[in-house]
Design brief:
Largest interface: A-B, 34 and 40 residues
Shape of chain A: elongated
Strand content of chain B: 15-25%
Helix content of chain B: 25-40%
Radius of gyration of chain A: 17 Å
Oligomer: heterodimer
Number of helices of chain B: 9
Number of strands of chain A: 12
Strand order of the largest sheet of chain A: 4-1-2-3-6-7
Number of strands of chain B: 15
Number of helices of chain A: 5
Chain lengths: ~170, ~300
């Protein structure tokens, strides 16, 4: 399996390309763009210059530019989206980089809530009346909203999805 | 042993040099312009009550006289990266353009990789290579926090770097910021010289020659290679350039840097180097109140 772990494959462009792969669970570029557009309102043009790659099972990476596929290296761009599960989940880093464009499923926190969120704490936020699931969480920084990362919202509760290594007491 | 005394013959004001080496340096951060403007990052730091002093020669850097870089909002958002100011020199000398292919031959933990990417506006590709997996993992974590998407990471010995994963395409530019004896970093890490031996200097000089040679081979004719170290030892600096000039089709070129610097030395310890190594720049701690650094710019010929 060690070979597999450094192999990046470009994801299929659309349904037709996926059929050639004979891998019905594979995410397509078309689906990835629709996911960001439909759920978060991030327009597909945002990713015009980027390609999407899968390494291992279900972990998608985003790379500015192109490369021969498959490519056997240690890293290609940044981790972007977890697929091959019922609810796709963007990474903290993807949301920080591209989440400014989001208009839907965005939950804005005040200073105290933002600090708790990046410390990894779960918190009651009953006033949210939008969709449940993975939300883009923002706070104000230097006078404007800025995305912090991903939160899982269920039953009036926001669960911080900040990875352990990125948590901070701020 | 008193390592610094060996440089007395080539340093202009020995007392000032020694005194500077004993003073500590403030923390410095570079703004990651892929995620935030310099103004917005400054405002975010100031909003938290963090004092910021501009670095006058580099518009995107701030000294933090009272703070460490890692525990504030702009750090969490990947707007800033902790980087000693003199280490921001080589990427600026390399001067990559958006859309180019660039190799960072000894990349981890990634301060210069991320600086190259920002200079390229996250366009084109930076291939970042390191031989140590643990350090590469730190590089990846840093690059992701900064939101960089044009970096491809390879795990290999740079001396035998392969162009195969990218269809054998040569680079437009290469940054060869090699592992070294780090004499120039004593102001940050006062213990650096405790383990110093001449054997180590000579051994690592061989590695440096191998990496620089490979970088010249992997760069297209007319392309640029920048060689840098954070050490004063001519064995790791001018001697490495002299070797590359002998072995490969390349020449040293003049370049400007906004810091006070001295030319490369052409004689050391009974050796004589190619006279063009004078075009390299030596940056000493007492001239700009920074760490010590060495930087050279080469043009690939043939």
């Amino acid at each position: 399996m060690s070979d597999k772990s450094t192999r990046f494959d470009r994801i299929p462009a659309d349904d037709a390309e996926r059929e050639e792969l004979d891998d019905p669970e594979a995410a397509t570029r078309e689906e990835v763009l629709s996911f960001w557009d439909d759920r978060y309102g991030v327009p597909p043009e945002t990713f015009e210059e980027h390609t999407f790659w899968e390494r291992g099972s279900g972990k998608l990476w985003i790379f500015r530019g192109d490369a021969p596929s498959p490519v056997d290296i240690e890293g290609l761009g940044m981790t972007f989206l977890r697929t091959r599960q019922e609810h796709w989940k963007p990474t903290t880093d993807a949301v920080q980089r591209f989440g400014r464009e989001a208009t839907d499923c965005v939950l804005h926190l005040d200073d105290e809530q933002a600090s708790a969120f990046v410390a990894g704490e779960d918190q009651e936020i009953p006033e949210w009346d939008g969709d449940w699931g993975y939300l883009i969480v923002t706070h104000d920084l230097a006078g404007e909203p800025e995305p912090l990362g991903v939160g899982l919202y269920l039953h009036d509760e926001l669960r911080s999805q900040i990875p352990k290594g990125r948590r901070r007491e701020l | 042993m008193d390592v610094l005394s060996r440089y007395e013959p080539i340093v202009d004001d020995v007392e000032a040099f020694r005194a500077a080496c004993e003073r500590s340096l403030p923390a410095v951060v570079r703004v990651n312009t892929i995620k935030a403007s310099v103004e917005r990052a400054r405002r975010a730091l100031e909003d938290e009550g963090i004092a910021v002093d501009p670095v006058d020669w580099h518009p995107g850097m701030f000294r933090l006289p009272d703070d460490q870089p890692g525990a504030n909002w702009p750090y969490f958002h990947g707007w800033i990266y902790g980087q000693e100011e003199v280490s921001a020199v080589p990427a600026r000398v390399l001067d990559p353009e958006p859309g180019e292919r660039v190799w960072d031959a000894a990349a981890a933990p990634g301060s210069k990789t991320s600086q190259l990417s920002a200079l390229m506006d996250d366009r084109g590709v930076v291939v970042a290579t390191d031989s140590n997996l643990g350090r590469l993992s730190a590089l990846r974590t840093n690059a992701e926090r900064l939101g960089i998407t044009n970096v491809a990471v390879t795990h290999e010995d740079a001396r035998v770097h392969s162009l195969k994963p990218f269809d054998d395409e040569e680079y437009d530019r290469a940054l060869v910021d090699v592992p070294c004896s780090c004499e120039g970093t004593i102001r940050k890490n006062p213990d650096t010289l405790d383990e110093w031996t001449l054997d180590h200097v000579q051994g690592i000089s061989g590695v440096q020659k191998g990496i620089l040679t490979r970088a010249i081979q992997a760069t297209r004719p007319g392309g640029t290679v920048v060689y840098s170290t954070c050490t004063f030892a001519p064995e790791e600096n001018e001697a490495v350039l002299d070797h590359a000039l002998d072995e490969e089709d390349c020449r040293l070129v003049d370049f400007e840097i906004p810091l006070d610097s001295r030319p490369g030395v052409t004689e050391w310890d009974g050796e004589e180097y190619d006279p063009s190594v004078e075009k390299a720049r030596r940056i000493y701690p007492h001239h700009n109140d920074t760490g010590g650094f060495f930087c050279a710019k080469l043009e690939v010929e043939g």
